């Protein structure tokens, strides 16, 4: 059974995402010595699956349609926007969450006045790791460059 060449960009993007997500689990184990399978579906961490997915998609389009095509230009700009967002906007949103959670904890510990912390908003557990550090984005970018080159012979 042959896989249609038209599916090359889609399959490439999905494979890049899957590889990055699995690698997150492995790198977490190497760093901590503990297996934590939630990293297979988690956002944040090394390497960035957002970056690997959009870079892989853009590379696959470039390989298939040509690096001078309008479609490649669109996907390349899309990839840069996603990587910028992952590295800056989402990363600092996560930092904001960490700061807010610490302020609430400090207020609870130090407050001389009676503040009602029974409101649901104070009990909500927000995920602080939303985005990526620059090295995590670069890791995903490299995966997104390599995987299309490796799997393109299966399609083209």
Automatic annotation (TrEMBL):
Keywords: Membrane, Transmembrane, Transmembrane helix. It holds the Pfam family DUF212. InterPro entries: DUF212. It comes from the Bacteria. The keyword Heme does not apply. The keyword Metal-binding does not apply. This is Divergent PAP2 family protein. It comes from Absicoccus porci.
